[in-house]
Amino acid sequence: MIDLYYWTTPNGHKITIFLEETEVAYRSFRSTSVQATSSSRNF
């Protein structure tokens, strides 16, 4: 399973569409702040 962290931009939507069409298992997490996400210890 893929953990997908994405920003709500056209490119972020493209990858979710791709994953749906290819039926790959994934969990999506919408990022609210690039700085907060990338500096997190769990990232």
In short:
By secondary structure, this protein is of the alpha+beta class. It has helices at 10-22, 34-38, and strands at 2-6, 26-30.
Q: Which spans have pLDDT < 50 for at least 5 consecutive residues?
A: none
Strand element count: 2
- Rg over CA atoms, rounded to whole Å, is 11 Å
Percent in helix: 40-55%
Structurally, the number of domains stands at 1
Report the portion of residues in β strands. 15-25%
Q: Assign the structural class, choosing from mainly alpha, mainly beta, alpha/beta, alpha+beta, or little secondary structure.
A: alpha+beta
Give the integer mean of the pLDDT values.
81
**Going across the major beta sheet, what is the strand order?**
1-2
Assembly context of the chains: single chain
Assign an overall shape. flat
* Helix-strand sequence: EHEH
* Distance linking N and C termini: 16 Å
> Helical element count?
2
Summarize the biggest pleated sheet: 2 strands, parallel
